[in-house]
TrEMBL record:
Keywords (A to Z) from UniProt: Cell cycle, Cell division, Cytoplasm, Septation
Phylogenetic lineage: Bacteria, Bacillati, Bacillota, Bacilli, Bacillales
Entries under InterPro entries matching the protein: Bac_CellDiv_Activator (IPR053712), Cell_div_ZapA-like (IPR007838), Cell_div_ZapA-like_sf (IPR036192)
Function summary: Activator of cell division through the inhibition of FtsZ GTPase activity, therefore promoting FtsZ assembly into bundles of protofilaments necessary for the formation of the division Z ring. It is recruited early at mid-cell but it is not essential for cell division.
PANTHER family per record: CELL DIVISION PROTEIN ZAPA
Subunit relationships: Homodimer. Interacts with FtsZ.
Protein name: Cell division protein ZapA
Database matches in NCBIfam families: PRK14126.1
Keyword Cell cycle: yes
Protein's cellular compartments: Cytoplasm
The UniProt record lists the keyword Cell division: yes
GO process terms (BP): cell division
Length: 86
């Protein structure tokens, strides 16, 4: 069984250093982490009194909500394609 290559990438998210290990490319890992950092800063700007823990949870809730909406839309489009193909 072949094992996928794991990349170790050092990133900064909201002022904290993390080492992310995964099979995605370093550039993909950095891109994702950059988006998390951006979302945390956006939420913090709207809620300055949030502590980091609550900020992280709200960021996760936002990300999962976006994921669920996109997944539902994708499934809807798949059904529409199947219907059109007859």
């Amino acid at each position: 069984m072949s094992e996928e290559q794991r990349n170790r990438t050092n990133v900064d998210i909201y002022g904290q250093q993390y080492t992310i290990v995964g099979t995605e490319s370093t550039s993909q890992i950095r891109f994702v982490c950059s988006k998390v950092d951006d979302k945390m800063r956006e939420i913090k700007s709207m809620n300055p009194s949030l502590d980091t823990g609550k900020l992280a949870v709200l960021t996760a809730v936002n990300a999962v909500n976006d994921y669920i909406k996109l997944k539902e839309r994708f499934e809807e489009l798949e059904r529409e394609i199947k219907r059109l193909k007859g």
